[in-house]
């Protein structure tokens, strides 16, 4: 990616997250990035493709951010599950004052034909798969049910964080995840 394209994507990421995808036009992205609209269209082709790049980049950065937390948790499945909540808490404090970018994007992109929709749903499917895999190791025989419960706790906490409903929803979700694992017979 050229430096101008990188600046444009960085500006788009910030603007889409802060203001919403539909509220931000290519004129504003170009102005914020210090590039021309021609540069945007030459690199991305359309606003829709800028949205796709934004979502894909955000997902990639989240996965890279999460990996060291999972590694540091060691082999314990329960510790690895709780590490996801720890990573989300740290990520949210640093990157997500307005909640989950994928959930926010889904509020604006509900058409399955939009190419961004596939990225949003794939990211959430990946998270469900992660929780289900970890739950299978932590609570054999209950992987699907526990994985879904963990996913609900995690996603609900992200939404509550973005809405600033109450203090530290991700921390509370982590505690609830711990209780869910204990109830499922996992060694916590």
Describe the structure.
- The chain has 188 residues and is mainly α.
- The chain is 78% helix and 0% strand.
- The termini are far apart.
Structural class: mainly alpha
What percentage of amino acids are in beta strands? under 5%
Secondary-structure element string: HHHHHHHHH
The N- to C-terminal Cα distance equals 44 Å
Calculate the mean pLDDT score and round it.
Answer: 95
Number of strands: 0
The percent range for helix content is over 70%
Low-confidence blocks of residues = none
Total helical elements = 9
Characterize the biggest β-sheet.
none
Which descriptor suits the 3D outline? elongated
CA gyration radius, whole angstroms: 18 Å
List keywords for this structure.
0% strand; elongated; 188 residues; mainly alpha; 9 helices
């Amino acid at each position: 990616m050229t430096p101008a394209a990188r600046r444009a994507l960085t500006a788009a990421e910030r603007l889409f997250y802060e203001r919403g995808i539909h509220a931000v036009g290519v004129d504003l992205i170009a102005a914020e990035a210090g590039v021309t609209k021609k540069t945007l269209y030459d690199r991305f082709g359309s606003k829709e493709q800028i949205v796709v790049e934004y979502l894909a980049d955000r997902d990639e950065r989240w996965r890279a951010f999460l990996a060291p937390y999972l590694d540091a948790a060691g082999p314990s499945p329960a510790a690895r599950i709780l590490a996801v909540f720890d990573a989300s808490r740290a990520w949210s404090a640093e990157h997500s004052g307005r909640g989950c970018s994928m959930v926010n994007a889904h509020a604006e992109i509900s058409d399955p034909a939009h190419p961004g929709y596939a990225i949003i749903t794939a990211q959430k499917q990946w998270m469900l798969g992660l929780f289900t895999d970890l739950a299978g190791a932590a609570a054999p025989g209950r992987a699907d049910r526990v994985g879904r419960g963990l996913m609900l706790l995690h996603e609900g906490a992200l939404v509550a964080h973005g809405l600033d409903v109450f203090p530290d929803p991700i921390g509370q979700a982590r505690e609830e995840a711990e209780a869910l694992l204990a109830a499922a017979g996992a060694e916590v």
